[in-house]
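haha ok so turns out i had the wrong file open the whole time. this is the CORRECT one, sorry everyone. sequence first:
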Amino acid sequence: MIPPRLEPLLRADAPAGQLAALFQDAGQELALVGGSVRDALLDREIQDLDFTTDARPERIKEIVAPWANDLYLAGQRFGTIGAIHDGLLYEITTYRSEVYSEDSRRPDVAYSQDINEDLSRRDFTVNAMALRLKRDGTPELIDPHGGLADMASQTLRTPLDPEVSFGDDPLRMLRLFRFLSTIGFAPDEPALRATATLASRLEIISRERIQVELSKLIVGDHVADALWGLVQTGLADHFLPELSALELQQDPQHRHKDVLAHSIAVCAKTQPILELRLAALLHDIGKPATRAFGPNGVTFHHHEVVGARMTRARLKELRYPRRQIKDVSDLVFLHMRPHTFKMGWTDSAVRRYVRDAGPLLDWLNELVRCDVTTRNEKRARQIQRRIDELEERIAVLREQEE
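then structure:
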């Protein structure tokens, strides 16, 4: 049975159907592979179509040249040929058997004639399935590692021993939690143990690649589970150490809310917008550095100022764009401002708040609302009511100015 999401894509007149006919006529195999197969079987929107074949790169070019409007060859040295057809890019990669060096995640590419060998080198079993395409539009599922069963049990498992898989490509450890966040599948125990053992291997991965995975992870529907996993396995220590540092030791005389649990909860409550979620996760990272004990209990004076500075440094280190760094650090810097509204703001103070927040105003107000995680329902209602009043004042002043 063809997954419903794939039916229109595999018609004879659709690009995938046309490619299937071209490769079959040339005596070569062609299969859909990876995320497109996974998403089709999960009935999720398919983002990209990735193909794999037993044809070598030069042969791929010969087969697709009459069909493609142009070829994209940036990935040719890794066995990938891009065929541009009607403005869309279709990437076709030769079956591979990869060998990784000890100090690099870049593989030495070796080609294979066996699709099962190719699939064994992929990150997780749910991504190690393929649909071999045929001219008649009836694909054949290839699932040598039990990906379909793992999909049914919502399990993330590596095709090979996880220490081999993660040792080969340490970025897969971060992808483990990215997929937990985005599709809700739980890592199996061997994968978690291997991550805890090999977490330091993440140091060889470029910050840019880590940033891409973190950005996908943080906007997932199951972000809280993923963030806890990063902390509990020690993986966060190697690219976001400020997160684990929020797990502050407490003593019976100086109690305060669990800053790590609070930060993760706030992050999960916000809309899945990258800048907003990053700000929610990092809004209290200045607290460990500003914690002080006094006669009236524990204080974190100016933690938003320290936190904004730390946020800028961390996001810069992770190679985020300048605009995003500014937006996130500004949200962290301003997140305590509305709490002073209870003291009574003049119209000038309200206008100054709006001016300082600028285009971030709606995100800032949402962050402040989500920052309320107290179990004291009366106090929570009071804070939400103050934010309602602040937004009403802003609306009234805008109306007057118009």
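The chain has a mean pLDDT of 92.
again sry for the mixup
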